[in-house]
Amino acid sequence: MTVQSVDTARPLALPLARPRESFRLLWRHTRGQRGFVWLVGIAGLLAAVAGLVAPWMIGWLVDVLLAVGVGGGDQAPAAADAAAAAGTAGGPGANAPAAAVWWAAAAVAGAGLIAAACAWAGQAWLARAAEPTVARLREAVMDRALRIGSARLDGTETGDLVSRVAEDAREVSQAATTVVPLVVQSLFTVVVSAAGLVAVDWRLGLVGLLAVPMYWTTLRWYLPRSGPIYRDERAAFGTRASRLLGGITGARTLRAYDAQGPELERIHAASAQARNLSIGVFGFLTRAFSRNNRAEAVVLGAILGAGFLLVSAGYITAGAVTTAALLFHRLFNPIGALVGMFDQVQSAGASLARMAGVVSLPVPERTARLHGGALELAGVSHTYDDGTPALHDVHLRIGPGEVVAVVGTTGAGKSTLAQIAAGLAAPTSGTARLGGIELVEADPGSLREQITMVSQEVHGFATTVAENLRVARPEADRSALVAALESVGAGWVGHLPQGLDTEVGQGGYRLDPMQLQMLALARVALADPQLVVLDEATAEASSAGARRLDDAAARVLQGRSGLVVAHRLSQAVAADRILVMSAGRIVESGTHDELRAAGGAYAELSRAWFGG
């Protein structure tokens, strides 16, 4: 029989930040790069102004050619006047059509060079501003993820957090370096071109304003629908990442039970949902483009029609209408780009909100110093964020040097009790104290000096054995590392290819579960805490390694207080006291012999485990 203690709770999604909070966080992390942000704006404005040169030159050239009779017609006198005015302004005048063409070509080429230089400089400055900002943002997410309570982190989907640190950070970085330049340039182009259209002729500018309500109706249709769509898409990507990660990390278990089929179906379902949402986003964006195309066709036709009437009446020249039409036509691409890139902006905004949501998680200030003493849990109850109850009115005292074992069936609340006793989770009600000081008020460094927890899920970092051990005490020298390994019977480290300097983890020497657990117990010996919490810390070992791990755990507990969530009843026998839990309550307490004689729940477990 195996007595398990896995407390189950429905995974919770990490929070999302509001748009204002997200951009406030982003702006805070632009410190040191804000000068580059302003330079990017200046470069975008200059590039937009340079883009006006071509439409103005073409319109001016039309009037010059008409003035010398190339086009002829009733508009020649007005064109001549415009050409003469252009000549007095420094152009080649109406008597030199070839020179006019060359002069216009030179102006357009020069403006093109200026625009290209501004675009290059804007990209370079934006990279200087964006990359450090995104790096700091990613570090802030990781910092908060490592500092929030273990219970809060364990209650979420691992893939959700991984997606926020990896995919969402990449989305924000990609938007900052590729989308933002285009958005800035498009915005400046729209504003400057609209101003240029009004400057050509205020009447044509009024006609161009017809596009505003048409674009506005598109935005009113687009904006309320786009936000939820992109949020759902990003959430689906997080679920897909979680499924894929679970399938990869659990591949051995799936093969052992020939359960690859059902897991692949779950992965396929998550991938299909993400795919369908992405296809829906594309269709949604296509409908937005079609609305914009309709507005452009209608308004351009209206400008050409109004221009024809104004030229016929002699109010403006054909060149002015040409310039106005080209300026309005010049709005097509930037407005289309703004709508086309809005999905990426929205997607990046959703990613930023997900990252900011992690950063917004509260990390309570803890300043109290622990100095040892008895661990006391008084009236402790705990309910998970999703409403799942775990503990009910638990009272427990572990004196200095006392070892208490906890047993019970699945879902009894043993792991939750261990997390609260280790200070990794705060009780919903009641208090957990060490030496009279509440654990929730203890400075994290002081807490870890006094209490160390080892769980069933032990992580081996992709580095040397020595650095894996120094997680517990970074300043430890090699002699201290060797002593810690010897104290738990991990002499096998000396037989590794490079001993303490052997690279382990991904890409390195592969340690089996027993060896990983021994390294975890050696970390405890190196940290030398007063209280040790072992939550099924020897459960991963095979039957051959179980005795060695039990011996190693017993050595770690010597001279220390201990709370041991027992995976095997044989671990509980040696404890000073045994607690039996059921449905979040302590239902029995006593020594092994006392509880067997009582004939209660422990006696039943004992008969099933030991026989007789």
Explained architecture:
The protein has helices at residues 19-28, 34-50, 53-67, 76-88, 97-147, 150-154, 158-200, 202-208, 211-249, 251-256, 260-312, 318-359, 414-421, 444-450, 465-469, 478-487, 513-527, 543-557, 569-573, 592-598, 601-610; strands at 375-383, 389-398, 403-408, 429-434, 437-438, 451-455, 531-535, 561-565, 577-582, 585-590. Mean pLDDT is 80; it is low at 1-11, 70-80 and 82-95. It is built from 21 helices and ten strands. The chain starts with 18 loop residues before the first helix and ends with a helix. The protein is 63% helix and 10% strand. Strand 7, helix 18 and strand 8 form a beta-alpha-beta unit. The protein is α/β, with parallel strands linked by helices and 612 residues long. Helix 1 (19-28) crosses helix 12, helix 7 packs antiparallel against helix 9 (211-249) and helix 8 (202-208) runs antiparallel to helix 11 (260-312). The chain crosses the membrane at residues 36-58, 100-121, 179-198, 204-223, 297-328. Its main location: membrane.
Feature tags:
612 residues, alpha/beta, 21 helices, 10 strands, ABC_transporter-like_ATP-bd, transmembrane, ABC1_TM_sf
* Straight-line distance between termini: 14 Å
**Biggest sheet strand line-up:** 6-7-8-3-9-10
How is the biggest beta sheet arranged? 6 strands, mixed
Shape from CA axes? elongated
Q: Please report which band the strand proportion falls in: under 5%, 5-15%, 15-25%, 25-35%, 35-45% or over 45%.
A: 5-15%
Mean model confidence by pLDDT: 80
Number of strands: 10
Counted by DSSP, the helix tally is 21
Main location: membrane
Subcellular location: Cell membrane
Pfam families: ABC_membrane, ABC_tran
Membrane topology: Multi-pass membrane protein
